[in-house]
Model the fold of this input.
Amino acid sequence: MTDTLSLPPGPAAVATLIATDGTSPKEAGAKMWVDASGAIVGAVTIGGCVDARVIQESARVLAEGRPALVQMSLGDEDAWALGMTCGGSVEVLIEPVNAAEPADPIARALRVARGEVEAGRRAVIVAPLDGRNDRLVVFEPGGREGTLGDAALDAAAVAACSAYFGSARSGTAMVRAAGEAVRLYFELHAPPLTLVVFGATHVAMPLVELAGVLGLRTVVVDGRERFATRERFPAVDELIVGMPSEIAERLPLGAHTLVVLLSHDYKYDLPVLRAVLASDAAYVGCLGSTRRGKAMLDFLAEEGVAPERLARVRIPVGLDIGARSSAEIALSVLAEAVAVERGRGGGAMRDRRRAGGAGAE
Done:
């Protein structure tokens, strides 16, 4: 059990990090499971001293059969163990779950959300924070399943979900329904970010390795069997050998996909790029010089490809870090791809800090 939508086979307590105050790499949505014996189920934990407190509270939650909302203030030492750079606080929701019980609302919500994610769609699970274990699952672009126990609250929660689909993050919010303010937790579940590389080149090899470290799903496409091999790409999730342009047309290149073209060959790149630009891929990067890039984009423009689609192409690909080796080029490419997917410009953090932006203390 390695992800937030997995379920243990029997009764257990699930602890969900719903809010942090302080600088932390842990975002809302991090989970851990504790069984009736107090053992952690699976390999995922929230981290640091929080785990010990969760184990302690989980015994009470399972014994009483009621959720508990735990707030913890962390000193610098405890915060550091959790991955935070300085002291802060965390809020954890601990709930009893029985996956073997078909009517269990939490287990059912997780299964429904998992089905959406496996189908390539996003879903938000909405949970009340008042001691009830009701659940509402909101689909994208519409639809819902389950209830928070009140029709007006369900409608208000559905309306509030648009902010979480838009920000691609989980979090808590106060929602007004029938004249009352109710605090809810909105947990976004989305398909994994996927890196699709066309061209099983020497740059593709470290690029796939780095993407794996970041937790991305990776796909390598090439028409040459001797290059697209497991020996060269031992960590890749999927290797596809065939005509790249045909494969590009049938792959689901959606908003959770980063696409990089590394073949450095006009006859391969142009038809692949044509197919990729017809998709909703979050990032499109192409290896090549500025002159080569202009020639390719001019050719596609003459074919009628819209200017706004051509503007998506990053060529030359990557951030300017003075890259020389294949690994350094891969680092610059992946850094740019992540920045674009997150809506960032990829500038220096010190410039953001000077401007008082995100990350400033």
